[in-house]
Structure formats: C-alpha cells, structure tokens
Specification:
54% of the residues lie in helices and 6% in strands. By secondary structure, it is mainly α. The two termini are 30 Å apart.
C-alpha cells in the first residue's frame, strides 16, 4: 500500500522533505542546517520535545512566505506566484516529512498526542492558503492569461493543477462556506488520526493476544512460526506461545494450524478491531467522517463524496468506477464459488456436516494447494531470506534501468532496524537515498508502504535535489535460530513497495508538487504492481531465491510449481479485494447525512454484491485504514484499475520475447520519471501506444483463457 500526496499544498498528506536552509535557533536540530550525508534528515538528533516548537516555527515561516507572495507589488506572473507557491514551506516539509513518517513507523502515545495537536493546525494552515482571496486573485490572474504565457507542458501542468487545487479546496466558495469548510477539514484531520490510533491500539490490546500453553494445540504450525510466538511470549514475560492480530503472527496459524478454534479466535480478533464498543471503537468516527465528507462534497456541487474525490482521477466519476468494478466482480465471484465448493469437500473429510467458514479457508486452501501442485509454502520460505530478496529487487532495478545500490553505514536512522542505501544511475550520478524498515514493532501501523521523506525537485539555481525514499513493512523478524524468512506473498509485497520507491527515486520533475508519486490514485499503483510480475519470473528468482543455510539456488522444479500455482485461489484473492473496493464506493456514494449502523450498512453492502459467507471482506469498516486514514477514500478500486494497467504494461515486454527488453524498459522508465507533469492517461498511452486491454489481467488471474 502507498500513501499518495495529492498536492504539495495539502499539508496533512505532505511527506516531502526539502533540506536546504540554515536556520537560527540552534538548540532545536530542525532549525539548524541538516549537516548529514546527502542531506538526509538528522533522525538521530530529533527528540520528542523538538517537534512542537519546530512545527511552530515552520508554520510561521510558511505563512511569511505566502504573505510575501501576496504582498508582492509586481503584477502576478507564473514565476512570482505559481512557482513561488510551489517552493514555499521547506522547513515545514522537513518537519512534516520526519514527524509523520516516524509516527507511522515508530510511534508512541506522546507522538499521538503531538499529532492530535498538530493535525488541526496544519489543516487550518492549508485552508488559509487555499481560501486566501488575495492569493487566489494572483493565481487566477496568471491562469486566465495562460494562453499568452508561452509555457512549456510542465509549466502549464503546474499552473492548471495549482488553479484546480485552489478551486477544489474552496477558493470560489462564499465567505460563510469557507468558514464551514475550514471547520470540516480540521474535524476530518482529527478523525483520521484517531481512527488510525484506534486500530493500532486494538491490534496491540492485551485482550486481543492469545496465549497457548500446550504445544499440542499447535499441531501443524511450522517450527519457525512457533519459535516466533515463543519469543513474543517471552518478551511479554509469559510462558508458552503468544499470538496476536498482527498478520505476521496470525497468518501462519490460519494457513497451517489444525486447531480450528485458535484459527477462529485469531481471525475474529483481527477482523473485529475497532468494533468492540470500547474507547477504541471506530463506528462513531466512521459516521462523523462520512457525514463531513458528504457535506463537503455538496458544498462543491457534487451529490456524493465519490464524485468530488474522483474528478481528477483517471476514472473521473463514480459511475465509471462502479461499472469497472462490476465488470471484474462477476468472474471473480464465480471463481470464488468454485474454490469454496472444492474446499468444502476437503472440510467434509475432516468434519462431516460442518460448513466451511472464513477461518477454514486458508487452512484447506493450503491443503488443496499441496494436493494439486505438491507445493508447501513452508518449503519455500528457506529460499526467501529477506536480504537475498532485497538483493534480487535491487538486481532487477539494475537490469531494467541500470541503477546501482550501495549500503551506507553510520547514517542517521530513527530505529536500529532501519537500513540505508545510496542509489546511483549507470553513469554514477546520484539518483536518491533509500531507507528500508521491514520489521514489526509496537508503534508501527500494520501493513507495508512507501513514503517520500524528501521529494525530488529542481530549485531556482538549477540544482536537482534528489529524493529520500523509504520502504516500510511488517515482515517476520529474525529469531534466535533463523533469519527473517519470507512467504511468497511477502516477496510480492517487497517487490510491490519497491515499485513505489522507484517511482519516487527516478523522478525528473522541476516542481515538487508534480514530482514522483504525485499522480492520480488510480495511476499510482501501476509502478508497484508492475514490479510484482517479475518476482515470479525464473530469471529473476535466480537472483534472490537461495536456501539460507546451503546457498542452493531454488530448484527449477520448485519454481515451476510456484508458477503453476499462480492462478490458484485467485477467486478468493480478487473477491476479498473487490468487495472492499465496492464497500468503499458504497460509503462514498451516500447522499444523505442520516446516521448509519456501520455493521448493518456493511452487511447490506456485502449482501447486495452477493458476497459469499465463506470469505470476509479484506478490510472490514472499523479497521479500514485505507479509506478512513491514508487518503484512499473512494479510491481502493485503484488497485484493480492499476492491475489492468500493469498486466498490459508487462505484456508490452512479453510481446517482444524479452521481459527485460531495454527499449521497452527505457519507455517505461521515462513514463515514471515524469511523475505528475502530464496527464496520466496520456503518459500511459504514449508508453503503450494504445489503451490498456483488460484481458491481460483476467487471463493472468485464470478467469479467461
């Protein structure tokens, strides 16, 4: 999963860090020059007490910079207004980029408190820019004369996107509406933070942990999973095996453990987070959030939040998204029903008369996989040692794009688990700095993601500032007896997030707000999902699939089994994903602000799509961070939308007979380098020469021949 900043001035989503200026107030490391290798943040110097005063000063400076634009006596021009706005906020970028990254990856209660204080202030700051009548008058003046300015395509894009951002954020509203919009935005920023904090609290709650004291209750669970659970118990001062709603903890149980009741307990602990009618319950927050989003959409003349949100995406409106989802839902559901019937037959052999339940699916799917493909996931893990897989990812980037990766020592990091790499091009020019942070910890939110800690851009002196990017995950930690060993799903996740990293690293934009991953949400997943195609290719697996004990390359027979099984269980995968996408759209196509019963609404949504009882929607409402925290509201469909694009893009390589074809790779890199400097549909059409063909995606899933 990727957090995408829609625009440079949407301050809450800013993850950019621009480290140039030497500030006063040397007692606070944020307010002095970042005297670090490659200008990365001085993570090792920042203390909790530094954040609030740093935000105070950053906000003050930002306001001064904006006011300077407004007070400029010269007539508005592209340079003194539009470009000047894009270059505002260097210190704010630094403080925001560091704080929100650490909050997600290594947070604590004190940081949560700071976030709760800062969020409404940043929302107010952003609104203060967009609703500044004098500032908008300058922007509008430049925009109205755009046809006479002789701008190049990137400059024209910056101008139009800046103008649209002002309009979409309230510049044309009445004074009364602007005041109300500012209130809405501040409330939404606080609700978003609280929702995510509740999910983390529920994941870590003691009552959600399950302690097993009798090893006989863990029949079938791999030794590596038992070792990890034993270490978790020891860390908690307990004897036995401790399991939690973290994916690295419960997934092996669902997949291998014969203890049906333990499988049920853990899946329910995971899928009921935020739904316990306690201090961390998210149902009221969902109501408040949806109501505010509806009110906001109507202020801009839209019937639903979905249409307001989607206006600048490739899909443009909710009707297009709904039609798209339905076109892939039918074949996915049909495949899932066939899979459920096959798993029910297996269950009948063990428990005659019992119905297949969601906590049975993974367990019997693993058994069926073994029967059909003679493939055991645990047999694969010794070949997927984390460092080897990361090396394979780096090697792929070298093969396709000529990039090189050098591990850097003694770099400032916010946690000892973090590692840092220098990325250079074929000509040894600096491409950027990559951080990796792969292991779970109490303060880290679930999932995997990429952040831009520092966007790429070219400053007024023509200096190209290269980006600082981070990949974050929650993979298995090394144990006393084993290194970090990944599942095939984990391998795919690492390739996915690295695709996002490449999108940020290879950026060649002039302006920060158009650089790297600042693209529509239904395009941003293309580079990441495109990379997933390669992790299954034998030529690529030969670069990372080594047995961690013997160094033996994974046998061809095992690679063949993996690829033969790629279409296995894809009905489940797609149905789980698409049901979450449809649920997202159902929330954001609401038109009235009547209070809803969240559980009943979710059940009704699933019933309308004829969701089968054997599968639980990938993200139930009360822990659906994507749409209530990380900016993917009315946007979760983008994973499937981008899947159509990525399957079509990979077909462009296959059609040449060479999956590393240098000419196609050059075109694909050129598309990524342009970030948001051009329309996403135009970028893709230029790369491919035609519209994406959905058949490549459906064929890859095994839904059509």
């Amino acid at each position: 999963m990727k957090i995408n900043s829609i625009h440079h001035f949407t301050i809450l989503c800013l993850m950019a860090v621009s480290i140039m200026a030497c500030h006063k107030h040397s007692a606070n490391p944020f307010l002095t020059a970042q005297d670090t290798p490659y200008g990365v943040p001085a993570f090792d110097k920042y203390q909790l007490a530094d954040y609030e005063p740093a935000f105070d000063e950053a906000i003050r400076q930002y306001n001064e910079e904006v006011n300077a634009i407004v007070r400029n006596a010269d007539a508005p021009t592209f340079e003194n207004t539009i470009v000047a706005l894009d270059r505002c906020g260097e210190l704010l970028d630094l403080v925001s980029g560091v704080f929100f990254n650490v909050l997600e990856a290594d947070g604590n209660e004190q940081m949560d408190s700071i976030a709760n204080m800062v969020a409404p202030r940043l929302s107010e700051l952003s609104d203060g820019v967009y609703m500044n009548d004098s500032l908008f008058a300058r922007v509008q003046s430049v925009y109205n004369s755009k046809d006479e300015l002789n701008l190049n395509p990137e400059q024209m894009r910056l101008l139009t996107e800046t103008y649209k951002s002002f309009v979409n954020n309230g510049a044309l509203l009445s004074a009364e509406q602007k005041k109300r919009l500012m209130q809405i935005n501040q409330e939404l920023s606080v609700l978003s933070l609280k929702f995510g904090q509740n999910v983390v609290a529920e994941t870590n709650a003691e009552e959600a942990q399950i302690l097993i004291t009798d090893e006989a209750q863990l029949l079938g669970l791999p030794e590596s999973a038992k070792a990890a659970a034993k270490e978790e118990a020891a860390a908690a001062g307990k004897q036995g095996w401790l399991f939690s709603p973290k994916r690295t903890s419960f997934t092996p149980v669902l997949q291998y453990c014969a203890n049906r009741d333990l499988r049920r307990q853990l899946l329910m602990a995971y899928t009921t987070r935020g739904n316990h009618d306690n201090a961390n319950d998210n149902k009221a927050l969902i109501n408040q959030t949806i109501h505010l989003r509806i009110e906001k959409a109507k202020m801009f003349g839209f019937d639903t939040p979905a249409d307001y949100i989607l206006q600048d995406c490739m899909a443009h409106n909710a009707a297009t998204v709904d039609a798209f989802l339905q076109s892939v839902w039918a074949p996915s559901l049909a495949a899932a029903k066939r899979e459920a019937a096959a798993l029910q037959e297996l269950l009948n052999q063990d428990l005659p008369g019992e119905k297949l339940m969601p906590w049975d699916w993974w367990y019997y799917a693993e058994q069926l996989r073994k029967q059909q493909y003679d493939l055991n996931e645990e047999e694969l893990k010794p070949y997927f040692e984390l460092n080897n897989v990361r090396h394979g990812v780096f090697q792929l980037a070298h093969t396709l794009y000529g990039l090189n990766f050098e591990k850097l020592s003694d770099m400032p990091v916010y946690n000892p688990d973090v590692e840092v790499f220098k990325v250079t091009d074929a000509d040894n020019a600096l491409v950027g700095i990559l951080y990796t942070d792969y292991f779970p910890r109490a303060g880290k939110r679930p999932g995997a993601w990429m952040n831009d800690i520092c966007h790429q851009y070219i400053d007024a002196d023509g200096v190209d500032h290269r980006p600082v990017i981070i990949n974050v995950g929650n993979f298995n930690k090394p144990t006393a007896g084993n290194p970090s060993l990944l599942s095939m799903d984990d391998v795919e996740t690492m390739f996915h997030e690295f695709g996002h990293a490449l999108h940020g690293l290879m950026s060649k934009a002039t302006y920060k707000s158009l650089a790297g991953t600042n693209v529509p949400r239904d395009f941003v997943e293309l580079p990441s999902q495109f990379m997933e195609n390669y992790c299954y290719e034998p030529a690529v697996m030969a670069t990372y699939a080594f047995h961690y004990q013997t160094g033996e390359v994974m046998p061809d027979s095992l690679i063949q089994k993996i690829n033969a099984a790629k279409k296995f269980n894809q009905g489940f995968v797609e149905t789980e994903l698409l049901s979450a996408s449809i649920l997202d759209m159902d929330y954001h196509e609401l038109t009235t602000m009547d209070s809803i019963d969240v559980n009943a609404f979710e059940a009704s949504s699933l019933a309308k799509m004829n969701m089968i009882d054997e599968i639980i929607v990938r993200y139930r409402s009360t822990f659906y961070n994507h749409i209530f925290t990380t900016g993917y509201e009315a946007g979760y469909y983008s994973y499937t939308w981008a899947a159509v694009l990525d399957a079509d893009a990979f077909a462009a390589f296959r059609e040449t007979g060479d999956i590393f074809n240098p000419e196609v790779a050059k075109r694909f890199r050129h598309m990524l380098e342009q970030g948001g400097t051009r329309d996403a549909a135009d970028l893709y059409h230029e790369f491919r020469g035609k519209e994406a063909d959905p058949a490549h995606h459906l064929r890859r899933k095994g839904f059509i021949d």
